[in-house]
Amino acid sequence: MSVEDKSSSDDLTASSASGPVNVRRHVIGAAAVTALGGLLFGYDTGVVSGALLFLKQDFGGLTSFQQELVTSLLLVGAMIGAFGAGKVADRIGRRPTLLVTALVFAVGVLLAAFSPVYWVLVLARVVIGLAVGSASMTVPLYIGEVAPPRIRGGLVSLNQLAITSGILMSYLVDYGLASSANWRLMFGLAVIPAVLLFVGMLTQRESPHWLIRQGREDEARVVLRRLRDDGDIDAEIAEVKEVAARRVSARDLLAKGVRPALWVGVLMAIFQQITGINTIIYYAPSLLQGAGLGNSAALLANVVNGAVNVGMTVVAIRLLDRTGRRPLLLTGTAGMVVGMVITALAFLGGDQLHGWNAYLGIAGLLIYTGSFAVGLGPVFWLMIAEIYPLRIRGQAMSVATIANWGANFLVTISFLTLVNAITPKGVFFLFGFTSLVALVYFAKRVPETKQRSLQQIERDLGAQMSEDGTPPPAPRR
Ligand code: BGC
Fold first, then answer.
1. 389: Cβ below 6 Å to ligand 1?
2. Whole-angstrom Cα distance, residue 277 to residue 272?
3. What is the pLDDT of residues 43-69, one digit of tens each?
4. Shortest-distance atom of ligand 1 to CA 164
5. 309 within ligand 1 shell (Cβ under 6 A)
């Protein structure tokens, strides 16, 4: 029986017909432990907005540029981390890479919490960034390889759920510690998930796909016995060996068969950022304050936005393996267009939001965030764990991840300047437009990967997604 022929009705919570409870426990356990890396990604990117308010005072006043450095150098570190992690994960394995990542997280957040002078804090943010970048690609990579195809969508997206939960947690911590102005604790609390990730990874096994690729088939078989129903194991090993044996090297990242998949990953990465999500995640309170809302109203709207982000990610996890990736991606991206246009319309009367316009603006932002969370948020990270050939999977995911962090950096540093230049209304219309362009691209180019083994997706993309990028036909059931 081939792995893709399994029942299509299973989801994360249902029991598999032939899969014993233990199998599900091991798979979900592996995904949940690894997803702590996603939690750290979300927490560390979200925490700085609140912390900034207080560390300014402690370091005797910081210029805007100094504040921007503390915020955005994490993104530069993340680009470097994603670059290195791809190579390292392919060379030493996914598990050791995650162990090192957890250590770097711990060192970085402690350095930030105890930084005696400003430049040490800046250095600490770069170090944290290295770990964030590494986690952002190694977590979906590892979960994607550990998960059986029928529940892979939901499992890999636990990572996105962890990211959004991390962001929400950081908002709540910032809010809770605001009265004591304790920015050191805001940064330092992240050491708890970092230690949990390290200890948790000690209890996990190496990715079976990576082991097979190293010729360590016996070890892979032992691991797969924990993660699969017996009948699936031989078929999977044979499939992984077959695709691993193909001559694809790092130099072939741009080879004909791989190029379409590379483009899909890189363009999804860029679209995920240039449609504006992090301008909302990082700057929503300032935007709303600027529009005349009081402090607490702005913070409350931010927390609600964070909660919608988490809630809609849960919806995505429930649906990804049932409806498929494309319907969620397309509906979600269409919702982002609608949300941005509503927000822009709220600002039609001027840069200040009064009365109903304030509600309209917030409603637009919530629709936008919820739509991102149900589609492009999780689907991007899932797709890049699914569409690359095994032999270059680590490196190809790195390229897409670097593109994601690079685009994030550019949007983040230019956003405030852009608001000044073309007003909030102009910026929201612009994001509505980029979302529309993204929607058209996704409809044309992004393939469906639901319930197919990674090996089959690889064959389909190589064989059928030819130079013109035509997506492969719907999967066999
Ligand atoms: C994105 C992050 C973003 C987060 C928001 C992720 O998928 O990659 O840049 O901050 O979603 O939920």
1. no
2. 7
3. 999 998 778 878 877 888 788 778 878
4. 12
5. yes
